[in-house]
Fold these 4 entries.
Entry 1:
Amino acid sequence: MVGPRYIRGSRGVTRFYSLHTIAAVGRGVHASQHRHKTSDAFCRHFVRAWRWLGVPRISQLDNEMAATGGGRHRFGLSAVVRLHLLVGTHLVFVPPGEPGRNALVESFNDMWQERVLALRHQDLRSVRRASAGYCCFYHERKAHRALTVSRDGTRLPGPWLQVRHAALRWLPDDFELDSHCDSRGRLPVAAGMVSWIQRVDADGQITINARPYFVGKRRTGEYVQATVLTRRRRLVIYTALHRKIREFPFAFVGRIVEPVL
């Protein structure tokens, strides 16, 4: 996420956020701009991104509150988490306060701000037009150093996506967020995994949904992976080498459905 950013136009000041997703394989990108950083904005951004980039098997995010849910409920799973589970994607949150873990998208963020926000804008529509134009340039005309002709057949992310379209996972054509929500507008919990990478603190604990989980004093300073296995309703703590350390109940409310993909 980039923002908040501000535009001073004829109708006053407009505050907005820009959400960016980049594919680690193929380097395709999607950007969308929103007036507010809500979980609904994040979810609709992801659906649009996946229609262009394909649905990932693993998705890595930072700890923005709109994505994590803010830890209001000990066993709560945010709308963003539920959406990823619904499409069969393993969502991984990087350690808090370590934006370098998302260096791939942070690099794109810098370029996007230099090329898009440097222009003079009167309103959010102007930003969206400029963003769409830059993304078109990025896909069709900007050779990416991570792609090679010998290995990938092209150095452009756009043609890369076209050639490999059949090999990627795609949402059903009729997939709509609202059709999967219950009467209260909430997405169901699908069978799958969501993980947090965290560093064990001086008390031997990590924090998930604003609640502490004891890992062990001797592991202070180590990075561990805490994974919720929704089908089992369990939180399992693994070492960096994926050895299980501890296991806790994770008793969220509601039935479990099968993922769409």
Note: Residues 45 and 51 are 10 Å apart (CA to CA).
Entry 2:
Amino acid sequence: MKKKPSILITNDDGIQSGGLKALIEAIRPFGDLTVVASEKTMSGMSHAISVNVPLHLTQILSEEGITIYKTNGTPADCVKLALNELFDTKPDYVLSGINHGSNSSISVHYSGTIGGAREGALNGIPSIGFSLLDYDANANFSHSIKYCQQIFRFVLENGVNPYTLFNVNIPNIADIKGIKVCRQAKGRWVEEYDKYISPHGNTHYYLTGKFINDEPEASDTDEWALKNGYVSLSPCTLDGTCYETIKSLKFKV
């Protein structure tokens, strides 16, 4: 009998999030799951790791085909801790999500969800980050499940290039047209802060802002795909080198 793949799952919205539960539901038929997620929300943590804070790891469920742990770490911590403490050999796949909200374009750099998937890819493990374009804590993930399954099935059958991860974003609409493989759009967050004076006279700032797509007419980007009713799938590399600039730099040493 063929051995079931070993799959590590994490997220950045916390152990109780609806998106994590939906991803578990979607992927459970494919293999043996180990779930490690933070006990609280870790949105916007990117690839942060805990250096000066001790981590704990508590098992909260163990049954055939699935074991679930909670910790106080970030998504990247969850993956690092799991790889070091829970596996004798590397898992076959690392999946992260389903995130509450978009991780398209420049948000890939801020996302804790993608940070978890990136940590998997850094260890040479095929990894995917999933996100749904709905920030509501009570978001309906039911229509996302089939796309998570479809994309994971593709990875099972075809693999992923070494040290590459898939960033998948799912529009929050009923009639999705399909899946588009696309690049990350060039964009930026125009950030503002809401200022608040507490009853004790202390000044606090709350981050707000809006996303600006710097190439709205480009039809090969994740932003275009999402705006036009498609699931976006962007393969992301870990190599941050700008090779075009290397060609133009001529330092004498």
Note: The longest helix spans residues 145-158.
Entry 3:
Amino acid sequence: MLEVLDLSDLKQKILDRIKEASVIFKPGSSSSQWRIRCPICGDSQKDPNDTHMYLRCTSDPTEPILYKCFLCPNNKGGRVDRKFLEKMGINPDEFSELDNQIFNKLYSVKKVDVKLITGDPVMNSPQMYYIQHRLGIKFSKNDLDKFKIIWDMDSILQYISNERIRNTMPNNHNTVSFLSDDKSSILTRVFNDDKPSWKKTRIINSNNRVFYSIKSDIELFTDGEITINLAEGIIDIISVYGNFNSGPNSIYTAILGIDYISGIDHWLAKGIIGPNINIRIFIDSNINEKDLKKHLKKYKWLFKNISIYKNAKFEDFGTKPDKIQAVEISV
């Protein structure tokens, strides 16, 4: 684990100081959001009670306080730093921890685009061969790019300051590594059977539950259907993507465990809810279907449909098409 400064107390102090300096300070749409009048554009001149700037302050100790104004040109946003505090009329020297180098290093990983970390797909590589041979599917370069495989491990080393983690990072010789959704972890499948099948390397501290999702572009405000596909493991969800693709506006997420409900909650928290949303859950053979159906019943009214699928020919869906016979279980 990275030895990082826990900034929870610092963030609360900064938030309290912003509250003191604000004419209006009120809760936003979630417990981690607040609204203030924008110190950059001056906010609404017609109504002095309008607040167009949102502050986001989560419990994640490595995530700074973020701001975004919906009245500023181009919706001005960023992190609360020295310049922002000065705009608020607050002396930034009150908070010297803002300049903490480890914190800034960690935050750089969070804000770097996934593409810059994972790199371009390397065709004819051991990683590509393993996935295609394991699943019996020939993926295109565009497909492989969506899988968030770290094709060059050196591309991420530059962001890691902890020497122990740098020295224990997986290589690209006998493994394939995937980047988690929050960029906090590298999830590695080892090819050799005499070693553990999976290894998780935490590259930055995070209080978030770790998920893996295939990259996709979702049109949230469409009247058409959106489908959320959930499976236990990364290879399983890539197989679902290849063998049971639900078309445009689809999400593919590995919950990295047996708590399928957590996957639904994860997307609910992001606003994926409504009568046009389908949930498809691809379970392993060791899952208790009755218990899962019981837990899913309270979610049925939130979505158009919830379906469970089990492979009648194999223990999971992470295998070749000739070993897959999907059986739907009604919820």
Note: The longest strand covers residues 274-283.
Entry 4:
Amino acid sequence: MRAIAVLATVLVLTGCSPTEIACTEIGAPPGVGVTVDKALATKVDAVRLTVCWDGNCHDRNVSLSPGSDTVDQGCNGTGPDSACSATAVPNGTKIGFVEVLGLPAGTVMISATIRKAGKHVALPEIAAQAKPTYPNGPQCPAQGNQVQVVVGASGLR
């Protein structure tokens, strides 16, 4: 019992506690993540979003790149010297992210224009929920608000 009391005193005096959590300086920008469905990805050359809230609208071109899935490669052993790995495997989608400064948490309206086979196609506006991100986990302060949308055969969702 005395050993526990001594350990607790040392932890308090050194400023350490088993529940102390470090929050790093990592950030997450406010914005919209875009995925172009596999069925459309080879046909869509470009995406332009319009994001609106409180009477203000922001137009952004989305830079697209190939999407991928992460495949677990397993681990080689156990303990502190073990190593685990994963690999990215193309999944046929296209992805992108656009920063939208001032994006609030809550409902925002998003519409898109895509360039498909050289022609511009307008997609109907949808309501989407932007939410705060927690890159250090929920025990740390929130960072930029973000929302994810998908460009699919039936439009924007």
Note: Residues 26-156 form a domain with the Immunoglobulin-like fold (CATH 2.60.40).
